[in-house]
Design a protein that fits this description.
By secondary structure, the chain is of the alpha/beta class. 40% of the residues lie in helices and 14% in strands. The radius of gyration is 21 Å and the shape is globular.
Length: 397
């Protein structure tokens, strides 16, 4: 493959920016000229990886400190117009846009450049009989269960999907593009890269152009931390960087595991807790941690089930105790439970005793830890970055 000019565009939250940086590194390692457009906060890290950084337009689409937010699709119109000069000057052979980042995709379409979508989590589009994405319901076992979800999804989702198509088509008209006739119009029909474990995906007939490549993982540099002393099983408590501002899960895990025959390593991820944390004798609490270097030393990871943390833990062979907070965390926890690689603790049960029981179950049930090791073995034998890069190269060609 001759070297190509490739433009990547990613939403700036870590769960979206980090997988795109991982893809950029894989493409650059294969000799391509890669530009990554994302939020300014990641400039230093992007450039340290040898990629060209381009600042993405940053618009407020959620209420923040009294700032009046833009409507999501209104922001897409502005962002597309701001991105067009970058596409025109770079003239990339192919564009890869994050599923939440429509502007690079629309700009690419305006210039007739092939475009792929990177989906940095499980595939969100269901099919008849599957539970509605993000509710946290598992795949049903019976025909009656499938029939229920066929009816429920039709009743609850169809109007929303039609509205989304209408809003997207208004946006497309404003930037000079023809309307689309299909729903889920923000996902490329040429190539969609699903960056998760195939073992977390429900059996289904996959649409043309959709490929589950495996987790795309990257993290910023971090210093090593001292582990709690001893040789008891090591439990890592790894909260979300965006959810649970009160650190309810972190405090409950520290209280619940006090006195248990485990060592506890916990991080508050540079988000100061609103009150002092209860740190028992068997625990050590730090402000930040390298998951890639620490998780392989752990037996169990307690987390909110953000996709990046979840797949990093499974890639390291750790059983997972998933305590979902919002949105797709519920879906990730359900997929983990369905795959048999961890224990799910619903949000309403996040308190010391349930968390201790969940950790004990994750340690004591051989099938859970064996399943986690199976996923780690799969990750070790499948280069997700290379697999995704080859598909992007094929699209460019």
């Amino acid at each position: 493959m001759n070297p190509r000019r490739i433009l990547l565009g990613a939403f700036g939250d870590p769960g979206h920016a980090f997988p795109m940086i991982a893809l950029g590194c894989a493409l650059a390692a294969r000799g391509h000229e890669v530009t990554l457009q994302t939020w300014e906060r990641w400039r230093e890290h992007v450039e340290a990886e040898g990629l060209t950084f381009a600042p993405a337009p940053e618009y407020t689409v959620f209420p923040n400190n009294g700032t009046e937010p833009l409507d999501f699709y209104e922001a897409v119109v502005y962002a597309t117009r701001d991105t067009l000069p970058l596409v025109e000057s770079l003239a990339p052979d192919v564009v890869v846009a994050d599923i939440l980042t429509l502007a690079p995709a629309l700009a690419a379409e305006l210039h007739h450049i092939p475009c792929a979508t990177l989906i940095p989590h499980v595939y969100p589009q269901g099919e008849p009989g599957m539970p509605i994405y993000s509710l946290g319901a598992r795949l049903p076992h019976t025909a009656l269960g499938h029939a229920f979800w066929r009816a429920a999804a039709h009743r609850l989702l169809d109007n929303g999907l039609q509205l989304g198509r209408t809003q997207l088509n208004r946006t497309r008209e404003q930037v000079g593009l023809q309307p689309v006739t299909h729903v889920h119009g923000g996902t490329s029909r040429e190539l969609a890269l699903v960056a998760t474990f195939p073992q977390l995906e429900y059996p289904r007939a996959w649409p043309d152009g959709v490929h589950v490549v495996g987790p795309l993982m990257w993290e910023p540099p971090a210093a090593d931390v001292e582990l709690p002393p001893g040789d008891a099983p090591l439990v890592l408590v790894a909260p979300s960087t965006a959810q649970d501002p009160e650190h309810r899960m972190l405090a409950a895990a520290l209280r619940g595991l006090a006195g248990a025959d485990v060592r506890v390593l916990a991080t508050w991820n540079r988000r100061l807790p609103p009150r002092s944390l209860p740190v028992p004798d068997n625990a050590r609490v730090v402000d930040w941690i390298s998951y890639s270097r620490t998780m392989p030393l752990c037996d169990v990871v307690v987390c909110h089930a953000g996709h990046g943390t979840l797949v990093r833990a499974l890639s390291s062979g750790c059983a997972v105790v998933a305590c979902p907070a919002v949105g797709d965390m519920n879906e990730n926890a359900a997929r983990l439970d369905w795959a048999g690689a961890g224990v799910r603790v619903p949000h309403r049960f996040i308190s010391p005793r349930p968390l201790r029981l969940a950790v004990e179950r994750a340690l004591d049930e051989p099938s859970i830890r064996a399943r986690a090791r199976e996923l780690a073995a799969w990750a070790g034998s499948h280069d997700a970055g290379a697999a995704a890069a080859v598909l992007v190269e094929q699209l460019a060609a």
